[in-house]
Amino acid sequence: MRLSRSKLASWNAYLRKYDKCKACELCETRLHTVHLRGDIPARVAFVGEAPGRDEDIMKEPFIGPAGQRLNEIIKDCVNLNGERIAFLNILACVPLDENQLRAPRSDEASACLSRLNKLLEIVQPAGLITLGDVPKKFIKDTKFWEHKNMVRPRRIFNAPHPARFLRLEGQGQPQIARTLQETMINDINEFVARLPQYSRAIQQRRPLRHKK
Length: 212
Prior knowledge:
Layout: H1 5-16, E1 36-38, E2 44-48, H2 53-58, H3 65-76, E3 85-89, E4 96-97, E5 100-101, H4 106-111, H5 113-123, E6 127-131, H6 133-139, E7 155-159, H7 162-170, H8 174-193, E8 209-211
Parallel strand pairs: 2-3, 2-6, 6-7, 7-8
Antiparallel strand pairs: 1-3, 4-5
């Protein structure tokens, strides 16, 4: 199943309304809003916390150094070969304090809730792979799924954010980074192997099953 051109155009028009969003203070420091990259619909969606500086400039998620490492990881995941994959973040805007990157706040994530739900509605993933602690905490919050008409993937899995591997390598610990990355690849392969096809994935009232 692929979206028709008219349907895709309507989604793009809907997302453009967030270009002028002022739901939180991040509108004052962003260059652009950043929404979605990849296949529509997708069987697997990777969810990060927020755009970085590169993403803020280019208007696409996961295109900086961490995104490049994620692409390498995906290539090494045998069970993702040929799969339809999408990339998105909890926040649409890069979070900055005094021009320094920082973690998103809960009020900022809540302000982006309706947008995130719309992205899930567009992508219709069978499984979400959250990257790092921030999206894991937010996605697993029961209040998140109480939102009216929230789109529910069948399964959710949490993996380390690729930026962690880059930090470890920068700290002179490449072996630890390599071991953790290999573990992540094996875990993602196992997770994907248990997923249903994305076209049968969305069941609004089916309880979520979390791995890890």
